[in-house]
Write a sequence for this structure.
């Protein structure tokens, strides 16, 4: 019989060793330089006669790329060729004070439709002060797949440190990472394996779904935001661009993870940082749209503010750290352009650029120069992406939804997404002034409230 086992452990022939420390440091100086140059540049555009023409030319270029993004055809999910030998998979749960939700996830992961002797579950108790350690130890007595690692106050590195510490103990050819509130279906691992049949795939991200989406406006907005994110990721990947990891429900090929020296313990967003490391070492990242991994959305403005500031800072921080490797075009032209023109500029630079643009427009008594760019890329594109993303998510789940419901959810999502216009300028300005203390901040679950 022909051996049809999955090519999980192959080395990436295009991978090249990178000194990740090169480019790190002086984050405040770099941020202040970028922010100052951006503000001075926008203000200068208001004072020169051809400023409007330049802005319209840049806007046209971005809109052309956005149109190409929308027109990209997405390939259907791959089908799994049943392997002769199932690859061994390790599933990790990083938990800190998660007594309210940890039992449900452990029980779900220990009862998957996958050969029980071909996977293991590692729960990492990161010096919890609640009943998490006791709950995990009791569960380990009941489930033979479950292994528990207890960390103490001397262990450092936050979530990245916890994952790096358990990496040497895990046996899996593929490593899956989940947050403690994750919800999964019993058959999802077979679908995951289908993507790793491709030798270029170094990691896979499951689409995220908000399980408490009907709680209030914030959770409804997060449901739409996750649909928007999945749509943009699928379109970008389909066009040869960047796929992104989102932490909860991420899977990484062990050889890819080891090849980029594991998780970065000097970042506050381990998933976003690992995304760039993988692409810079020659790997692709895929998105699995169905079944999604469920998680709780934050329910208060305070929790949303802290969460999104962390995301914004960690996302911007990685460009400061790896700018030299990015500038050298190690990822290839398509990925580099997608990263710089379709992502960094729109998500991270356009919002803070709006401040000097508004102030100069008010002072000189003329319309803001960046209004066409903000309207097209910050309003129209997200509106379309949310609509299509929500429609796709319902189609993939074989659920019928009325046009009125779809319209209402899109409207809520479009209003909700505007909070990034406040978060991004604030987070980047704070990065230019204050140092960041690396700290694992627990997101409160509804059961904790």
């Amino acid at each position: 019989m022909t051996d049809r086992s999955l090519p999980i452990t192959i080395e990436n022939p295009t991978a090249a060793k990178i000194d990740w420390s090169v480019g790190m440091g002086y984050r405040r100086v770099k941020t202040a330089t970028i922010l100052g140059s951006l503000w001075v540049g926008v203000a200068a555009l208001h004072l020169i006669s051809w400023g409007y023409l330049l802005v319209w030319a840049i806007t046209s270029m971005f809109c052309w790329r956005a149109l190409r993004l929308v027109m990209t055809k997405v390939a259907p999910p791959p089908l799994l060729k049943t392997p002769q030998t199932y690859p061994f998979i390790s599933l990790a749960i990083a938990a800190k004070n998660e007594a309210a939700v940890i039992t449900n996830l452990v029980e779900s992961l220990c009862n998957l439709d996958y050969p029980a002797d071909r996977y293991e579950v590692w729960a990492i108790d990161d010096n919890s002060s609640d009943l998490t350690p006791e709950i995990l130890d009791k569960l380990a007595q009941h489930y033979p797949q479950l292994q528990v690692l207890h960390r103490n106050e001397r262990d450092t590195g936050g979530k990245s440190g916890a994952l790096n510490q358990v990496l040497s103990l895990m046996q899996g050819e593929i490593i899956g990472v989940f947050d403690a509130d994750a919800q999964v279906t019993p058959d999802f691992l077979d679908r995951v394996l289908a993507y790793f049949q491709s030798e270029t795939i170094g990691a896979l991200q499951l689409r995220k779904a908000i399980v408490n989406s009907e709680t209030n406006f914030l959770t409804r907005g997060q449901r739409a935001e996750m649909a928007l994110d999945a749509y943009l990721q699928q379109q970008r990947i389909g066009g040869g661009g960047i796929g992104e990891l989102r932490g909860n429900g991420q899977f990484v090929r062990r050889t890819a993870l080891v090849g980029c020296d594991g998780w970065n313990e000097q970042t506050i967003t381990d998933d976003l940082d690992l995304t760039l490391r993988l692409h810079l070492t020659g790997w692709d990242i895929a998105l699995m749209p169905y079944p999604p991994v469920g998680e709780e959305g934050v329910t208060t403005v305070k929790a949303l503010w802290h969460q999104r500031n962390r995301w914004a800072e960690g996302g911007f921080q990685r460009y400061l750290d790896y700018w030299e490797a990015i500038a050298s075009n190690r990822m290839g032209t398509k990925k580099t352009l997608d990263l710089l023109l379709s992502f960094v500029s729109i998500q991270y630079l356009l919002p803070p650029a709006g401040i000097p643009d508004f102030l100069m427009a008010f002072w000189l008594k003329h319309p803001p120069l960046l209004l066409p760019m903000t309207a097209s890329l910050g309003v129209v594109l997200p509106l379309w992406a949310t609509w299509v993303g929500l429609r796709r998510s319902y189609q993939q789940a074989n659920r019928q939804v009325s046009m009125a419901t779809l319209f209402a959810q899109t409207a809520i999502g479009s209003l909700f997404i505007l909070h990034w216009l406040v978060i991004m300028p604030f987070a980047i300005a704070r990065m230019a002034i204050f140092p960041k203390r690396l700290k694992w901040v627990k997101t409160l679950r509804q059961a904790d409230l």
